[in-house]
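Quick one: Diaminobutyrate--2-oxoglutarate transaminase from Halorhodospira neutriphila, structure tokens please.
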Amino acid sequence: MTLDVMETIEQHESVVRSYIRTFPKPFDKAQGVRVYDTDGYAYLDFFAGASVLNYGHNNPELKKPLLDYIQSDRIVHSLDMASVARAEFLEAFNRLILEPRGLHYRVQFPGPTGTNAVEAALKIVRKVTGRHKVLSFTNAFHGMTVGSLAVTGNAFKRRGAGFPLTYSESMPYCGYFGPEVSTLEYVDKLLDDKGSGIDQPAAMIVETVQGEGGLAACTMDWLKGIEEICRRHDILLILDDIQTGNGRTGPYFSFEEAGISPDVVTLSKSISGFGLPMALTLVKPEHDIWEPGEHNGTFRGHNLAFVTAKRALELYWSDDALQRETERKAERIHQALQALIDKYPAAGGEHRGRGMMRGIRFTADKELASTVSDVAFEHGMIIETSGPDDDVLKLLPPLIIDDADLEAGLAIIDRALGEALHKRGLA
Ligand SMILES: *Cc1c(COP(=O)(O)O)cnc(C)c1O
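--- reply ---
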């Protein structure tokens, strides 16, 4: 008797499960930009594990050193004791990422998920400044543990905490009031004004593209302005590059073009390159004032993830070939999305995002993006929605996708949008 995968999960797993409802098939194999269900049916993956799989599924160049490592009985779990794999990752990250960019950070390994990296960031900025409050932005997403939820915008997710979320305050993100209104002036004025009712915060936490919050992208001028405000008011700046980092927007860090120097940077998702859990909190040496063990955890740095992470850096970040390819494909995606917006005016589409993290917000019908995702799934594509109303169709293909698969995916989206408009009575 073969196990009924969907039935077994339905019977035993908590109802909290989520993506399985959007993509209700039993998956088994995966390679490159495709995943396969148990019937062997292939799906083009334009979600890439929410940007965990920037280098594709089961990348053979990363799988090989991983298998070699396990095969030779090298150490897998070592808490945060010294291991060769740990040192080799740190050396490669410094040599290939930090030094060439003139960035000076100490690497902290929090627990292995993104929200662990954010919790560590929130703790250290409070410890350094002695202040409590952290400013976040409208539609921000920083994770599901309570510290991260306190700086997350989404009301539904915030409610899950079950008690009031405190020591945070939400400010309007870039473009929140439309392109005419500068939210920088608003934030700056509130911080200047002794009557504003805003206590001086420890830090601001910001994303350069709001991956979960609807793909709003800030301009590099806005980002520079945020850094200036932080410096002027003696506030630390946390840049959450968990989804946008590792080349998703083109450069390794999504903030490079702005030339800013955030005090804390969080990375996770694609840092291991292979889909193994791993997260980093980068802190400036002068802020690295932890007591040993003050932020501890069992899985802080996993040797298997170090092995694939180091190899991914060597493979993809020894030169700028991947960045240039990402920027080229990003332009093609931008152009294709604009063509869809023009082709289907009834959808009321607006372009969102940057780099290979783009999408369309449909203003005509809040259900349209989800319907496109459903229809695309029937046509063999995994593609997610984003935003508090799930009204943004979000394209996150692996960065290594080739032109033929990219075009195939864009064609499925075109067809799915046409069909979804019919289904929703808009065409
Ligand atoms: C995914 C994400 C997180 C949380 O990461 P988890 O691994 O789910 O805890 C935090 N910030 C951003 C910007 C993210 O995209």
